[in-house]
Structures are given as C-alpha cells and as structure tokens.
Write a structure and sequence with these properties.
This protein is α/β, with parallel strands linked by helices. 32% of the residues lie in helices and 23% in strands. It contains eleven helices and 15 strands. 46% of the residues are buried. The chain binds zinc ion.
Length: 313
C-alpha cells in the first residue's frame, strides 16, 4: 500500500513538473497567436523561428489589417516552415492576401514555396531583384505552377493593405543594375536592395527594412529624412552592426524596435536602440512578439517569454 502511494505521489510530481516545463517552453504562445482581439486593429506578430538546418533562422512577420486581411513579410529558412505554418494555423489563417519577400536570401524566402503550395495566396510581392539559387527558383516555380499573381514593387509605389492601411515602398529604386559576375559575392548587394516598406494606419506607423546595410540606410535617409519616422521598427539585418547607423536610428526614432534572430547579432545595436528610449526586443530572448494598435499611436506589446536577465541593458 505504501509503495502504491509513493508511486502515485511520484506520478503526480512528474505530471505537474512536466506541465510546468511545457508551460515554460510555450510561454504566452497561445495569447500571442489568439486572433480574437484583432478586429479593428493593425497587428504585427514577429515570429521566433527555430532553425533546423545550418542557415540562420531568418525573419517572418505575420500582419493582420483592421478589416482582417493577412500579410506575411518574409518566411524564414526552409527548415522553419513548421513554425510559420503552426503560427498561421493557430491564428486560423488559410489565405495570405499579401506574401511579401523583402529580398531573395534563403533566411527570408526559404518557406515561400511551401506557403504557396499549402495556402491560398492573393499575390506575391517582391522587388525586381533576381537571384539564381535553388531556393529562389523553387518559389518562382511555385508561383508559375499555381498561377499566383507576382507583383514587382519599387521605390515610389504604394498600395492598400485592406481598406485602412497604406503601404509605401521606400526602397529599392526601379532599374536594378547587376554588376559583372553577379551573383558571385553578392551578399551586400542583395541586402542593400531589400524592400523597405512603411505601413500607416491613422496615427500609427511601422517600418519594415529587410536586411539593408548602412549604405542603403544612407540613401533612404537622404531621400526621405523625417518621413522615415516610425513608431515600430523591424530592425534591419537581424540587429547586426552592418546596419542601424546613427543617422538611420535618429531618422526613424522608434518607440518599439524588434530584432528577429536565433542569436544576438551585436549587443551594441540592441543598446543603441534601448538607450535612445525604444522598447527593444530580440526574438531569440523574448520569443515571438505581438505589437498591436487601434491606429491611435498607442501599442499593446506581448512577448512570449519574460526576461530572466538584465544583461542586455
Ligand atoms: Zn536575413
């Protein structure tokens, strides 16, 4: 009898501690991927992606417009598809109205072919930049096979995301000129030609920057100056020191800055934003991050995990 009680107690302890462990792993995942409060709001969900390959996990942001349209900007490396797919399923999304590629590197377009084959897609939006790799060809082939419209964007274009959110294309300018030998040694060339998009919903603004480096930042700051100001910034190039120059940070002067990465690229960049007063998040630490607004310049932020450390500051 004593043995039996001891066994039951042990079983109970195991169940409870497994429950606590599972909860710790998931954090506020269910809250972040609950779409029930999304109506009338512009909501961006910056995903924590887990790489299951050699490539870095990359970027993926799922946006929902106040009238229920869905935009996905970038979609991680191919091995992160379960994370992207799981988030979309949790949100009850079966149709992506706007599937946007900031630029054709694998940590941004890796899951595109799988998304195009598995979801109803309104249109794919890219810059004109072409990049002959197998991942790029796969998703171009998926576009062709499924006959999804492919819309090419360039600086000066704008379009509506649903009825209430305006999207302006700030970069790159039309007419990309390839150098001889492209795409050999093209990492910077491609990153500097990322799509930069500004989303405006009434008094609220979001800036998406792909992987632009300081060279492209300089051009954009030169062209747009104060118009770059945005409340919420997707920090360029995963928070790396290739990017986020002082002039760029000052022009944007975000309230909220989000870095998507499976590591910390450069702590100085984090601190530059944080010390300038931005609430700054890194998906490798904070998990997925939800930022939502009714268009009044006020934001609700939910992170998946609580910070257990203050070493970042
Ligand atoms: Zn990247």
């Amino acid at each position: 009898m004593k043995k039996r009680i001891a066994f039951l107690v042990l079983a109970l302890v195991l169940i409870l501690s497994w429950g606590a462990w599972a909860e710790e792993q998931l954090g506020r995942y269910d809250l972040i991927f609950d779409a029930s409060q999304d109506g009338g709001r512009l909501t961006a969900r910056f995903l924590q992606l887990t790489t299951r390959s050699e490539d870095k996990s990359g970027d993926c942001t799922i946006l929902t417009s106040p009238d229920g349209r869905v935009m996905v900007i970038d979609a991680g490396n191919p091995s992160t598809f379960p994370d992207v797919d799981g988030a979309l399923q949790a949100l009850g999304i079966t149709r992506i109205d706007y599937l946007v590629a900031s630029h054709p590197h694998v940590d941004h377009i890796g899951s595109f072919a799988q998304l195009i084959y598995n979801y109803e897609i309104g249109a794919v939006y890219t810059s004109e930049l072409e990049y002959p790799t197998s991942h790029y060809r796969n998703y171009m082939e998926a576009i062709e096979r499924t006959k999804v419209p492919h819309i090419i964007l360039a600086e000066g274009d704008s379009f509506m995301f649903g009825q209430h959110v305006r999207v302006e294309v700030l970069h790159p300018p039309a007419g990309i000129e390839y150098y001889e030998g492209y795409p050999l040694g093209s990492t910077q060339f491609i990153n500097n030609r990322s799509l930069v998009l500004k989303l405006t919903f009434k008094d609220s603004t979001f800036l998406f920057t792909g992987d632009v480096y300081t060279a492209a930042e300089r051009e954009i700051v030169g062209r747009y100056g104060e118009q770059l100001k945005a409340d919420v910034l997707k920090v360029p190039h995963h928070g790396d020191s290739t990017s986020s120059s002082k002039a760029f940070r000052e022009a944007v002067s975000p309230q909220i800055a989000v870095m998507m990465h499976d590591a910390i690229a450069d702590l100085r960049i984090y601190r530059n934003y944080s010390r300038a007063g931005a609430s700054t998040y890194i998906t490798s630490i904070d998990g997925s991050v939800l930022v939502s607004t009714a268009g009044d310049g006020q934001y609700t932020v939910i992170t998946q995990f609580d910070r257990k450390t203050d070493f970042l500051d």
